[in-house]
Each structure stands twice: as structure tokens, then as C-alpha cells.
Design brief:
157 residues; alpha+beta; Arc Repressor Mutant, subunit A; Alpha-Beta Plaits; 2 domains; four-stranded antiparallel sheet; 5 helices; 36% helix; 19% strand; elongated; HTH asnC-type domain-containing protein; transcription; ArsR-like_HTH; activator; sequence-specific DNA binding
Length: 157
């Protein structure tokens, strides 16, 4: 865990990877249980976790939510094309898109469009409103294409 590659990446050994694997499945594990699962004692596991936190490898601990039970099970992906892709226009778009709470993720894309948004809403009617009133009104938006997710086969959350 102590090695830093020339590109700034942290070199992880088998134990670090095992710790990250276990924590990604259940971030609420006690250090004792985590140590047991990775086959090390508690002290070195605690030290490794602390070092990975300090190095920015572990950036936080999150709660998994049931979006269906929260009434937010509708996901739509939106491709956005801008009229202007100079730095000032990109900065204006980036700043404004962060103010739309329904936009769960926003990625600048290299390809046929400029951004890919993941939008989470209650239903298609709510999505249509967000698209028309918020996303289309973002700075420099020329056009958008939307794709409704029918099922999450594999999800990061």
C-alpha cells in the first residue's frame, strides 16, 4: 500500500485489495470481522484502512438505498449536445447541472455528444418535466436524446 506509481496511483497488494473488496460489499463491518475475513489480525487491518483513507483510496462510506421503496425507481439516461464546447461554456454547463437534484450523475463524453446524464425520478411524467424545464434550459444545450432504463442488470449503487 505504500508504493506510489509514477502516475500518482497507489500500488495495492493482495491484502489491500481483499480489504477493499470486503468493505465494498459491507462498509459497516467491524475491524475485527474485517480482519477475520481477510485473514489478518485487527491491528494491521486497521492500519491499512487508515492509510487507504489518508491516501484517498477510500473516499467515504455510503448507504445503499432502495430507490423503488423511496418512489424514485425511474431512471433515464440523457445524451446532451451543446452549442458551444469552449471552456467557458463547459464551465457554465457544469456549474448549472449540479443544481438539478434529479441528475444523479453527469459525465463529459468523447464522441457524438458532449454529456451523458443519469436522471432519477418518480415516473416518466416527472422525468418529462425535468427534461423540459431544467435540462433543456441548461446553458448552451442544443439537443438531447433520452433512453429509459427498463431494468438494472448490474448497478454501482
Amino acid at each position: 500500500m505504500q508504493n506510489i506509481e509514477p502516475n500518482g496511483e497507489i500500488a495495492l497488494d493482495w491484502a489491500d485489495r481483499a480489504i477493499l473488496d470486503e468493505l465494498s460489499r459491507d462498509a459497516r463491518l467491524s475491524m475485527t470481522e474485517l480482519a477475520k475475513r481477510v485473514g489478518l489480525s485487527k491491528t494491521p487491518v486497521s492500519s491499512r484502512v487508515r492509510r487507504m483513507e489518508d491516501a484517498g483510496v477510500i473516499t467515504g462510506y455510503r448507504v445503499g438505498l432502495s430507490w423503488q421503496k423511496l418512489g424514485l425507481g425511474h431512471i433515464c439516461f440523457v445524451e446532451v449536445r451543446l452549442t458551444d464546447t469552449r471552456q467557458k461554456a463547459l464551465q457554465a454547463f457544469n456549474k448549472a447541472v449540479k443544481d438539478i437534484p434529479e441528475v444523479e450523475e453527469c459525465h463529459m463524453i468523447a464522441g457524438g455528444y458532449d454529456y451523458l446524464l443519469k436522471v432519477r425520478t418518480k415516473n416518466i411524467e416527472t422525468f418529462r418535466s425535468i427534461l423540459g424545464e431544467c435540462i433543456s434550459a441548461l446553458p448552451h444545450v442544443a439537443s438531447s436524446s433520452s433512453y429509459v432504463a427498463m431494468e438494472a442488470v448490474k448497478s454501482g449503487s
